[in-house]
C-alpha cells in the first residue's frame, strides 16, 4: 500500500465532505461519527462531485438527484445510482489523514 497525506484531520468537519486531489485522483474525504473515509468524488449516476452532497449515518448523498452511497463499500443505497464508486483505505497518522488511492477496496 502507498499511503500519502491527504489533509490535516482538522480540515474535515463532522458529517461533511472535503474535496481533495490525491495522486491525481479526485477524492471526497469524510468524517462520519468517529470514523474517516475516502470515496471517489464522482457520482456514478450523474458524474457530479459527491463532496458537495450531504453526509449522514455512514452515507453520502449526491446533491443533484439524491443517489446515496455507503461510505464503507461505495455501494449505492438509493436510486437512481446503480453502480458503486471506489472507496480507498485511510489511515490516521498524528494529526493527518493518509489515503491510498492505488488500492481501492472495491
TrEMBL record:
Keyword presence, Oxidoreductase: yes
Entry keyword set: 2Fe-2S, Dioxygenase, Iron, Iron-sulfur, Metal-binding, Oxidoreductase
Protein name per Swiss-Prot or TrEMBL: 3-phenylpropionate/trans-cinnamate dioxygenase ferredoxin subunit
PANTHER family assigned to the protein according to its UniProt record, in alphabetical order: 3-PHENYLPROPIONATE_CINNAMIC ACID DIOXYGENASE FERREDOXIN SUBUNIT, FERREDOXIN-RELATED
Domain called Rieske: residue spans: 4-99
Coiled coil spans: none
MF-aspect GO terms: 2 iron, 2 sulfur cluster binding; dioxygenase activity; metal ion binding; monooxygenase activity; oxidoreductase activity, acting on paired donors, with incorporation or reduction of molecular oxygen
Residue stretches spanning the membrane: none
